Amino acid sequence: MARSPSFILPIPEGRESPSQDLSPYDENVVHDSFHQLIQEQSQRVEADSLELQERPPRDKGRGSQSLRGPQEYCSATLQILANMPSRTIGRSRGAIISQYYNQTVRLRRKNSRPLLREMSRSAQPSIRQYDLELDLTPREEEEKRSLLVKELQGLTITQRNHMLRDMPLSLTEKRCLRQDSCIHRGRQRYHQGSQTQLYCCSHLKYHCIIAFRSLWYGILSGLHALKPWRCHLKQISGQFGSSVLSYFLFLKTLVSFNVLLLSLLLPFIVAVQVAFPPTSEFPSPHSQGLELFTGAGRFTHTVMYYGYYSNFTLNQPCSSHQNSDHCPPRAVHLPYNMPLAYLFTIGISFFITCITLVYSMSRSFGKSYQVGSTLGVHAITVFCSWDYRVTQRWASLQHDNIRTQLKELLAEWQLKQHPRSVCGRLRQMTVLLLVWLLSLGSALGCAIAVYSFSEFMHENREIRTQSEKLQEASLLALPLIVCIINLVVPYLYNVLASWEQHDSPVLEVYVAICRNLILKMVILGLLCYHWMGRKVRSLEDQCWETFVGQELYRFMVMDFIFTLVDTLFGELVWRLITERLKRDRKPEFDVARNVLELIYGQTLTWLGVLFSPLLPAIQLLKLLFLFYIKKISLMANCQAPRKPWRASHMTTIFITLLCFPSFLGAAIFLSYAIWQVRPSRTCGPFRTLNTMYEAGKVWIRHLEEASPSVTWFTWIHQYLVENTFFIFLVSAVLLAVIYFNIQVVKGQRKVICLLKEQISNEGEDKIFLINKLHSLYEKRATTS
């Protein structure tokens, strides 16, 4: 709304689309001030028959072209319109000072100051005085400034600070105004007497508050500077846009989830077991040279896997001895029930992760699906995106960022301007049906291949006719086949997607995510059946939990290796070939495939956290390496998308996929392993129990026998933990929270629409007032 009178568009004031993004604060200020002036001037004309002197226009020819409405306004009306607060703001320092002087007068009037009509006529702002605010002389500007300083002195400290903070002036000018108002106010207090003097304690309190506030702001700025990869993310956003940036933001989110898991697993499970290592019952296996890839060998009987952990109370001398006569009397110890700690730590970590996921999803939903219209976002990006605090070092990066944002917005706008015809839609639907049939068929074929190969490897392992080294190398066969499928099939999906020819790059990414997600979830489902079904039955006399943990470790390592291979040959080699052929066509960063790789790796981590408590640490190292590897490859080998698109909802979609197919599937898998599957009899903290869940029941029974007064705790365990109704109730509450967040966003959209409609009506009211003012001038002209 802030426009200079020399650039007034030929559009009547207020005839704006309801969908434009306007500032309700500016509209209310303009409407109130203009309506007040018109009302006062009309009362003067009716009461005192005041003659409004018509001034000749300053610039001939400008009045007829500056505003064209339903009728041509006279020059005096146009001059008043040109001096409205919404038109003069930002034009000159004098206009700013004058406008904020008027606002300060209104603010003081609300605080029991005399009304405007009770003041002398010379002190009241009139319509004829508005032409002085267009181009103030230095003397008039200084007078207005002194009046503003006097008015600021009458405000409270909070009101004065808010008023100065909102002024569109330089920091130097704001500082001078604050100093002048404080100095004059201090002199007034000095002359009033000793009752208003500032004492030493007041000075000390003032300086202490300033010091603590500066310290707090310094800590906040330091914490902001310590955010990981802040400069790298800005660089990626400036050169490749928000679509590629969404991948790295999602990777950063996964890092935080793994740090959360490790913060619970390390102190309560791993560190305690390291402090009290159990006696080794198994001989140390020989090294075959493949431990880093298979996770077996010397890593088998370590804190990395489930089988190493004890099944008794740590730091209790009688816990590991069958004969209680060997117990020393009055032993000072701090008992630590390892089976109970193992079970409850895993459960609490999953519960906290679930709460964090739901909160992140709701928060991301509120950020991405913003209320209101996006038609005015182009002007906001052009005029409001620049950060004036940026240094010369980062100025070029901010240039690139704003330019990329404008490209994305224009590409999204152009896409809406060219819809497909009916025949084109029918042809596209036919191609989509055929491509989806081929995609689902390929996913089914891959699932059958994985199942058949796992059956073959299971039968071959039972024969055991190979040497130890070949047997250890054969452990990598199934992860190798699965990683090859995960590497090759997404490229096949990209070839099929080229036949579809989607107009929207966002829709193309969504379709690719759905196809890759179906493939990976089907393969993971078959692997879970392979581990919980055949392996549990065939390894009853062995530690099957450690084997499952080693399998998941091998899948994570092979997935990381194939990701590096894909980055090397899929991006680097392609760039070298294009440079060799002298073609300026580098590969684009595949957001869908790379994001599904992250979700796949995090799902493996959640599946294996029960069988390998240190698996989140391996995933954390993998993510840290992936960030820098992908970032270097992106900068050196990839180009920005040829079709720029704005990833406004991408983060929400990624977190939703991470929550429901990934985390929910892992939670179901672990719940089945805890409640239904019988633990191994030779290893682990639950070796003497029928199920892992019985560890809680045994502890409750012992607690009730030792202390009968804690029956209330037994009741809590029976009705809140064992009862499935409580779990369903918690799930229902979480779903209700998500639903209420969605409804709140919908309600905010409706409120924003009503507010925009109200702003449009305010514009209509302006037109009505302008017409009334014009009719007033016409009556004066006819009577004269």
From TrEMBL:
A GO molecular-function annotation: mechanosensitive monoatomic ion channel activity
Occurrences of domain TMC (ranges): 543-648
Entry keyword annotation includes Transmembrane: yes
Topology within the bilayer: Multi-pass membrane protein
Keyword annotations from UniProtKB, A to Z: Membrane, Transmembrane, Transmembrane helix
Listed transmembrane segments: 247-276, 340-359, 431-453, 473-493, 509-531, 552-577, 604-629, 650-675, 725-742
Pfam family, one: TMC
GO cellular component: plasma membrane
InterPro entries per UniProt: TMC (IPR038900), TMC_dom (IPR012496)
Extent of Basic and acidic residues compositional bias: 45-62
Ranges where the record places region Disordered: 1-28, 45-70
Location relative to the cell: Membrane
Family of this protein: Belongs to the TMC family.
Protein known as: Transmembrane channel-like protein
Organism, scientific name: Phascolarctos cinereus (Koala)
Gene encoding the protein: TMC6
